[in-house]
Design brief:
about 280 residues; alpha/beta; Aldehyde Oxidoreductase, domain 3; TIM Barrel; 2 domains; four-stranded antiparallel beta sheet; 12 strands; about 20% strand
Amino acid sequence: MITPRTDHLIDLALEEDLSLGDLTSRAIFPPRHRSRAVIEARASLVICGLEVAARVLTRVDPALRVRPLVADGARVRSRQPVLRVAGPTASLLAAERTALNFLQRLSGIATLSAAYAAAVAGTGVRVVDTRKTIPGWRALEKAAVRCGGCCNHRSSLGEHVLIKDNHIAAAGSIGRAVAAARAAAPHVARVEVEAGSLAQVRAAVTAGAEVILLDNLTPTQVAAAVRLIAGRARVEVSGGITLGNVREYALPGVDVISVGALTHSVPAADLSLEIIEAEPG
C-alpha cells in the first residue's frame, strides 16, 4: 500500500493537522515523556491499512516503534488489539487522529466488501467497485476493496471503453458511439455499453459490445436481458444494488455486479487508540 502517492497523501494529512504543531500535547508532555499504546477494534471488522497507519506514526516521529499485531484482511473481534506503538508521548498523540483516519476509512471499506463477497458466495458472480472514490485515495480504496474479498472495476478512464448514457445521448445512438469507439480505441480495449432498457440491450448486442452494463433494472428485467444477450457479451449489473438485494441480482449469466457504495458511502470502522502505560522520563 505504501507508494509515493501514499506518502504524499500522508504528508498532506499531517500538514493539515500539524502545520502549527500539537499545542495540547507539547504543553503537557516534555520530550522525554514516553508511552505505550494500542490501536484496538471496537467492533467486529476486517482490518485494512495497518501499513499506512504505521507509516503515519513513524513519519511524525521515527522514534515511535510500531508493531502490527495482525495482517491486513484479518477479521478481528471487538476489543482485539491490532497494532502496538511505543515512544514519545507527544509524538504518539500528534499522530493519533491521522493514523486512525486512514485505518478507519480503509477498514470500513474492507469490512463492507467482505459482507458483499459473502452475500454472493457460491454464485460465481464477482462484486466490483467503481470510480466513486475520494479524490487521490483511489489506489488505497481499491486495495481495501480487494482486502475485503471483492474485485476492482477500472481504475481510470483510460483502461477500457465504457459508453454511458451521456456518451450515447451526445453521439446520437448506441451504434454510432460503439462504431466511433472501435475506430479510435486500441485494439486490446474492451467496449462496454450501458443499457437501461431491453431496447438498449438489443442495440448494444447488435453493435457488437463485448460487455453490457445493465443499469437500474429489476432482477426480472436482468434475467430477461441475460436471455436476450445469450452469451454474446459479458454481463455487468449496476444501480440500486444493496447488501440486502445483491444476491437477487447474482443470477446465472451475470458476470459482475458493480457497487459504488463499497467506497462512496461506507461508514468508518470503529477503531481506537488507547494509552496502556506511561513513563514520565
